[in-house]
Amino acid sequence: MLSLDLMTDRDRKEAAAIDRRRRMEEARMKRIFDPKTRLFGIDYEALDKQIAEKKRNEDERKRIEQIMDQQMVKNDEIALAYERKEKQERAKLLQEINSFRKVYQRFEDRREFDINDPQGIKKDIPARIHDDDPRLGPSSAQKFEGEDLVSAQRLRIQREQIKSWLDQQMQEKEAAQKEQKAAEEAYKAAMVARDERALQLERMEMECRKRLYEANRKFNAALAAEKDFEKKVLMKQTTEDNFAEIYNTMTSDMMAENPEIAISNLGPGRKISSQYKGMSREEMEQIRHDQLAQIEEKKRQKAAEKRADREFDDYLNGTQKTIALMDLDLRRKEKERLRALAEDNLKMAEEQKLKTKYLEQVVYANRPTAAYFDQFNKSTR
Length: 381
Description:
By secondary structure, the protein is mostly helical.
């Protein structure tokens, strides 16, 4: 180990740099020579630690959030309880204030109630009740000499005036009643006239409907008679057509089975399928003759086929014998080839042994020892 007392600052820096490079090299060797890290390139242990740490942090965060949620719920419940209590206290205080006001602060107990009394004018005594009121003195300015000397005449005039007003009101009421009665009578007359007009229009409408129904009835009767006549004519014509069709069918060539009607104009031997009634005797004899000729031809064909089969079987037998001989020759040649191949393989094996012996004794005489291989993978560079 170097002595630090004899080292200069430059030597210390170089030693520190060498030591730093040595530590970096050791860390690099650990990373490179670790098969797991070299192949996958990931520190799974660190990742597992990070995942566990992250899970612990997540659990802690969830626990804190749960505690905070419970605390918030508890705070909300406390706040609601305080709010309900405050509302009750406020309602109770307002009730007490209203009770105190009703008992000790009534409106009529105020000092200025006589000024603000709504019934004050009704309760107040008039300044002058009559001329002999003892409250009226010289300074009251309510009683003067010669005042209201025509009160009786004024009252009489007032009574007459009131009577005239009442008479006038009665006359106006009677006139209004007469006008209302005349208007009601005019309205009733108008309603009667309207009802009579409506009845008249209804009678006219009924008369028109009767005439229309009668015209429709006559038209429908005429139309029904016309349809009955057409139906009878149609039935008569249909009956005549049916009889004519039956007669034509009975006298037709199809019912009479005339063979000449089945001959077609498209060529000789062509028949009309809808009119064909069967073959004649000559045609049946011709068909029988043709069938016998076909039977003879079939027999000749079978005999020729049997002869050809017999010849083919003979050819196959000769061919099989030839193939058997060729097969024997091929087997003999294959045995000879395998024997020659075995001899060649023996020669090649002997040559291979000689070559291997030469390589082991001459070419590969200087084999590398374990120390040769141990010198590798000592550094990352």
